[in-house]
Amino acid sequence: MGRRNKKGRDITGIIVVDKPSGRSSNHVLQQVKRLFDAKKAGHTGSLDPLATGLLPICLGEATKVSSYLLDADKRYQVTCQLGILTDSGDSDGNVIETNTVDEFTQQQLVTLVSKFIGQQQQVPPMYSALKHQGQPLYKLARQGIEVERKSRQITIYDIQVLACTTDTFTLDVTCSKGTYIRTLVEDISRDLGCGGHVVMLRRIEVAGYQEAQSISVEQLDILAQQEGIPALDKCLLPTEDALPDWPAIDVSDDMVTALRFGQSVQVEHAFERANVRLFDQEKVFLGLGEMSETGLVAPKRVFVTAAEQ
After folding, report:
1. Active-site residue among 18, 48, 87, 90?
2. What is the spatial distance between Cα 280 and Cα 57, in angstroms, rounded to a whole number?
3. What is the pLDDT of residues 26-84, one digit of tens each?
4. 13-71+209-240 has which CATH code?
5. Distance linking the first and last C-alpha atoms of the chain
6. CB contact set of 220 (below 8 Å; sequence gap of 6+)
7. Which H helix or E strand runs over 30?
8. Is 71 an active-site residue?
């Protein structure tokens, strides 16, 4: 029996959605995929339903860079309610403990959070999308089941205290992939002697994308209704801009053919070993490669052109 063709358009690009609170990342992804009538779409790392902020969604061939965006550094703003602990670490969970909040100063908090900056091991929370024997941890947690989780190395690059009251604090956190802000907040609040949980979480930067580049699902929906799909397509960001730190390499027409057949090519560039973005002589983005110290470029993710689809 032949494979059924997927419905939708072969549209390629990245749309940075400002995810609203109360919706899952997958729900937002499916909405955007429907609005663009895209054949293929994928997001670049889930946000908690409670969380808001930047959720880059890759359409078409751009899904080939999604895993690299997932690995990128991120920046969040988060508010903690002190003295109340929940099973999920945020306000979507059930209260499991309440404590008195001792008086503290903003300077004491600044000193405390500075101890969390740097490389460290973090144990993922049970309420997470990580899987145990094929089952998401959060589903097990909802059944009251807790399993052992291996710690993972993360890096907190910077923490700034934006505000604090007698029983709350708000932080600006820049961190590596794999960092659970809920866990970080729980650890900081525990060191304050009272514990706490997240009541606001917003991702304000990811992989170099800024809030000014984002658009809400509601805005996309209005555009689709009033001006149609061509207006939506104008909101797409070029895939080649997704990894600005990767060097750009121009290759000849012969090299393009070789790369599309999965063959490595020799280039004349002064770069050291690096992941690179590949462009043809017309400055058309071809995909991603990996270059050795000798200038040999191996294809990693080569895009399919419209003519080949």
Report:
1. 48
2. 25
3. 999 999 999 999 999 998 878 989 999 999 999 999 999 988 888 889 999 999 999 99
4. 3.30.2350.10
5. 21
6. 15, 17, 32, 35, 232, 235
7. helix 25-36
8. no
Number of separate helices (H) and strands (E) present in the chain: 8, 18
Residues of the chain with CATH 3.30.2350.10: 13-71+209-240, 74-203
Which CATH topology does 74-203 take? Pseudouridine synthase (3.30.2350)
Residue type, 255: M
164-218, pLDDT tens digit by residue? 999 999 999 999 999 999 999 999 999 999 999 999 999 999 988 999 999 999 9
Query: Which ranges in the chain are annotated with CATH 2.30.130.10?
Result: 246-308
pLDDT band at 271, cuts 50/70/90? low
How far is 193 from 112, CA to CA, in rounded Å? 12
Mean pLDDT on 242-263? 90
Contacts of 263 (CB under 8 A, 6+ apart): 299
Residues 6+ apart with CB under 8 A from 241: 14
State the CATH architecture for 246-308: Roll (2.30)
- Of the candidate ranges 131-140, 143-152, 273-282, the one whose mean pLDDT is the lowest: 131-140
